[in-house]
Write a structure and sequence with these properties.
By secondary structure, the protein is of the alpha/beta class. Helix content is about 30%, strand content about 25%. The protein has helices spanning about 10-20, 25-35, 70-80, 115-125, 145-155, 160, 170-175, and strands at about 40-45, 60-65, 85-90, 100-110, 130-140, 180-190, 200-210. A seven-stranded mixed β-sheet has the order 3-2-1-4-5-7-6, sandwiched between helices. Helix 4 (about 115-125) crosses helix 7 (about 170-175). The chain is globular. One of its GO terms (molecular function) is methyltransferase activity. InterPro entries: Methyltransf_11, SAM-dependent_MTases_sf, Thiol_S-MT.
Length: about 210
Amino acid sequence: MTPQTVDHPFFARCWKVLSAHESRAMRDLRRDNLAGLSGRVLEVGAGTGTNFAFYPDTVSEVVALEPETRLAPLAKQAAAAAPVPVTVIESTVETMPATEPFDAVVCSLVLCSVANPDAVLRQLHAALKPGGELRYFEHIATPGWRGGLQRLADATIWPRFAGNCHTHRETESSIAGAGFVIDTARHEATFPAWVPLPVQEVALGRASRA
């Protein structure tokens, strides 16, 4: 299968700015998501390479997928300065080249943007060695008025301007449905509760391939 890329100019310009000015809380969440990893890691949706600086030295190699044509060059620059070996491949996860199984897969704010998260998670499950681990840091569906805001945003302008991001997804249910066992999970607010944004809450967790 030929690797495919995507082109979301508005989102790419915005993400360059946002990722360069992430809050300390967001950086701490990224660091927590990667803590304790070892061996060979697949990172899906690397963006500008924001995660790369936080990989522990127990990781022997990171293969990072970034399909956005305007972000992949920035990820490659970040890879050159990373504390562990990182190879950036310009490809969607759906069309990633065949490879040996990984010890771990990392998903950071990416499962909201793939066309079919259930299929992608099954693919990631297959890409792991038995006993391998999925680390996820993802937007999730929330109840109440914000859930209504998420559904409205997803049905209108949000995916168009946010790189196909869909905020009202039951991501942890999809993870379990793909055959993973969720070992630890917690939810964190990234904005005050009163801020009327659909991406206020994220889930951070570890799931294993049984």
